[in-house]
Amino acid sequence: MIRCVQTEIIKRLFGGKSVNRSTTLKMLSVDPSSSVGASMRKEEGTRPLVGILATFVGSPLEREIADAVQKTRPDIRFEVFVRGKPTISEKEMEDLKSCEILIADPNIIMDHNLANNLPNLKWMHCLWAGVDRFTRSFSPSGPFPSYLLTRNGDFFCIQMAEYVFGYIIDKERHITEMKKLKEQSLWKRLPYRTLSELTLGIVGFGDIGKEIARVAKAFQMNVWALVKSFPKDGEQGPHVDEYRLSSDLPELLAASDYVVSILPSVPSTDGFFDGDILSHCSPKLTTFMNIGRGNVVKDETIIAALDRGWIGGAVLDVFSVEPLPEDSPLWTHPKVIVTPHIAGLCISGSKIAGDFVQNYDRFVKGETLPYTVDWDKGY
């Protein structure tokens, strides 16, 4: 947990009261392997809090964030402590309820039923790009929390683009197959396609989709993007050749050699690729990739599309049930690659710290924060 006092925040949010100008930063991480228990030292008075609540087992993330913040903001002093059990004590809960700003793993927020139990919260920043587990816990019609919710946006773009093109290049250049040939001491040349010959369809054209399109264009691929509305004249992105609406999904699927879904988990995307929609992939035996959320397609839909010859393969990082059950046929299907929701797993403490400092200053000044979640849309 981070306890942070900033003169400007108090002046702007709490009536301009005079306070100590020093800032205290405290961090709380959960490490089940540790036997160390610690209690939070109570600051004098009722100072406003900025907290961080996250689980990164086996990672020095809390120290990395603290060090990075200190380098850029020496006015912030902090204490780091680790506790050895994955529960929140009454004392810690009392401190959390005093927070005005919270940097948090949304899973912990939901596991401990904190979403509606933080009465003083003004701004929560989620450490992940997807906040669906959090937002979908509320009724689509509300009421929603009164605090501002932001998410990590651009941080995962590069990692997820690397994931997509790693597997595309692996398949097109037969990298995995070449490894098997090498193990058999077989000198065998396999024909391949260059990426410039291929079309990539992107379903879910937010920041991650735009980064994937940018990288695709570096390989001179033909790029199609599924969008909610056509961009206005002069506002078309430089990395997209064709835009299509959701009603034109069959056309995009038929044109694409690879289709990557980056759709968020909201009610409107439930079962987006279910039914026989993937039959439109059959002209090119499209490879279907899902790095967004698992609610968009059922496991049995993927298996059926493969067995019926609609798609040529599947690269799946997300699933309707996670972890993927051991008896799922996806594990053993020869044309399916399964990864455990790691396309955008990498977390950088220095990046989190840098973004926090910038957004903290914006928040203090009353400016708009990037990657603010629209409660009505759910992302």
SSE blueprint and pairings:
Layout: H1 7-13, E1 23-30, E2 49-54, H2 61-72, E3 76-83, H3 90-96, E4 99-104, H4 106-111, E5 123-126, H5 132-135, E6 148-151, H6 157-172, H7 175-183, E7 199-203, H8 207-218, E8 222-226, E9 242-244, H9 249-255, E10 258-261, E11 287-290, H10 299-307, E12 313-316, E13 336-338, H11 349-364
Parallel strand pairs: 1-2, 1-3, 2-4, 4-5, 5-6, 7-8, 7-10, 8-9, 10-11, 11-12, 12-13
Helix pairs in contact: 2-11, 6-8
Structural account:
This protein is of the alpha/beta class and 379 residues long. It is built from eleven helices and 13 strands. The chain has helices at 7-13, 61-72, 90-96, 106-111, 132-135, 157-172, 175-183, 207-218, 249-255, 299-307, 349-364, and strands at residues 23-30, 49-54, 76-83, 99-104, 123-126, 148-151, 199-203, 222-226, 242-244, 258-261, 287-290, 313-316, 336-338. A seven-stranded parallel β-sheet has the order 9-8-7-10-11-12-13, sandwiched between helices. Strands 3-1-2-4-5-6 form a six-stranded parallel β-sheet. β4, α4 and β5 form a beta-alpha-beta unit. α2 packs across α11 (349-364) and α6 (157-172) crosses α8. It is globular. The two termini are 25 Å apart. The relative contact order is 0.12.
